[in-house]
């Protein structure tokens, strides 16, 4: 049995190919830029060009990063520690733990870390934008972020990045004031920017687990899905694999036991698992409350819960004994979405 255990130093070298692996919190290919640390947990090489997955962590910032937009990238901001202010065109919100924002291509946006130790995470599509930090930042081997004031902006590198990464800075535009009165309860249903308050979005219960959709294939032109799962201690989800889809799991709270091609790992807060296409995998909550973020490209695997589970308005999983899985319905879904059930009985 393999176990995710503490390393003497954070992992800074990713495998460079699509293979199953687990990173403990504070690991990943890390670069420091303006006092903040961007960590690539997965890049194009690890996901078969499906997506990148990153975290950004830092101290409270004195000012936001410059307003800008991307020609091609879809960005996803899930706040998992502290507070972050996020701008999207003429709207802005202060995100706290569990809040979310979606930034499609062409959206003028920026962010500012508002807490003394704040972090956000999420995928980026197309894959490869994580290399922005390789170009503009400096390699970092620590586990959090540097002490002391940030260095000066690397203006020459920013100029190169604007060309290489097909982005455009807009210093001529004003920053909108943050709203606190918006409902922020629904997904957009199309490729438009939006914000979600923690716990909002379509919810389904399956096998005693609560899924809350953050973004679906409908919002991303089929390219990305992202949702949270909250689960009590219980039996594993049925073992399965995907023929084309790369999946990633990022633990927010509790303990999650994960099996990847027969190797077993125990993940806790901030740990991440990379699950390439073809990898047989399953998971089970090891604590009475476990929450994680699931990301995948292409999208649609969120439909496992919508198709085999029950819709709910509740913001927590049932407090009764977890129900079993509808194996017949799971088998039916194999013909609709990219999932192959590999466990016994399915």
Summarize the entry for a quick read:
With 346 residues, the protein is mainly beta. It has helices at residues 44-47, 131-136, 155-164, 303-308, 327-333, and strands at residues 21-23, 29-33, 36-42, 52-58, 68-70, 74-81, 83-88, 91-96, 100-103, 109-113, 118-125, 138-139, 167-169, 194-196, 203-206, 209-215, 225-231, 240-241, 246-253, 256-260, 263-267, 272-275, 281-285, 290-297, 310-311, 340-341. The chain contains five helices and 26 strands.
Which features would summarize this protein structure in a list?
346 residues, mainly beta, 26 strands
Return the structural class.
Answer: mainly beta
Write down the Rg: 19 Å
Per DSSP E runs of 2 or more residues, the count of β-strands stands at 26
**In this structure, how is the largest beta sheet organized?**
8 strands, antiparallel
> How much helix, percentage-wise, in residues?
under 10%
Poorly predicted runs: none
Average pLDDT level: 94
What does the overall shape look like? globular
Number of helices: 5
Largest beta sheet: strand ordering: 1-22-19-24-17-16-15-25
Strand content: 35-45%
Task: Explain how this protein is built.
By secondary structure, the protein is mainly β. Helix content is 10%, strand content 37%. The strands form six sheets. The chain has an eight-stranded antiparallel beta sheet. It has an eight-stranded antiparallel beta sheet with strand order 12-2-3-4-11-6-9-14. The chain has a three-stranded antiparallel beta sheet with strand order 8-7-10, with no helix packed on it. A hairpin with a 2-residue loop joins strand 15 and strand 16. The longest helix has 10 residues. The two termini are 24 Å apart. The mean pLDDT is 94.
């Amino acid at each position: 049995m393999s176990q995710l255990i503490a390393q003497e130093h954070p992992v800074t070298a990713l495998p460079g190919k699509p293979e199953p692996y687990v990173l403990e919190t504070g690991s990943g290919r890390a670069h420091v830029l303006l006092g903040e640390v961007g960590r690539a947990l997965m890049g194009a090489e690890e996901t078969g060009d499906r997506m990148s997955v990153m975290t950004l962590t830092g101290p409270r910032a004195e000012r936001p990063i410059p307003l800008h937009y991307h020609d091609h990238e879809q960005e996803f901001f899930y706040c998992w520690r502290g507070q972050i202010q996020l701008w999207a065109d003429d709207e802005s919100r202060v995100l706290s733990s569990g809040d979310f924002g979606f930034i499609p291509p062409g959206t003028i946006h920026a962010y500012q870390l508002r807490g003394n130790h704040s972090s956000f995470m999420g995928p980026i599509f197309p894959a490869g934008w994580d290399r922005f930090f390789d170009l503009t930042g400096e390699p970092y081997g620590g586990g959090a972020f540097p002490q002391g004031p940030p260095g000066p902006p690397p203006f020459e590198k920013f100029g190169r990045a604007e060309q290489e990464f097909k982005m455009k800075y807009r210093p001529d535009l004003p920053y909108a004031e943050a709203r606190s009165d918006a409902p922020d309860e629904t997904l957009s249903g199309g490729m438009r920017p939006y914000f979600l308050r923690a716990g909002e979005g379509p919810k389904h219960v399956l096998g005693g687990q609560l899924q809350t959709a953050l973004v679906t294939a409908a919002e991303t032109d089929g390219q990305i899905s992202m949702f949270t799962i909250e689960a009590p201690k219980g039996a594993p989800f049925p073992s399965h694999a995907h023929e084309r889809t790369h999946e990633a799991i990022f633990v927010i709270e509790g303990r999650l036991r994960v099996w990847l091609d027969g190797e077993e790992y125990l993940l806790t807060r901030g740990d991440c698992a990379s699950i390439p296409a073809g990898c047989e995998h399953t998971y089970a909550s090891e604590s009475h409350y476990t929450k994680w973020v699931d990301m995948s490209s292409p999208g649609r695997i969120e439909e496992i819960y919508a198709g085999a589970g029950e819709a709910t308005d509740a913001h927590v999983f049932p407090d009764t004994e977890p129900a079993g899985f509808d194996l017949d319905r799971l088998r039916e879904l194999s013909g609709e979405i990219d999932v192959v059930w590999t466990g016994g009985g399915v």
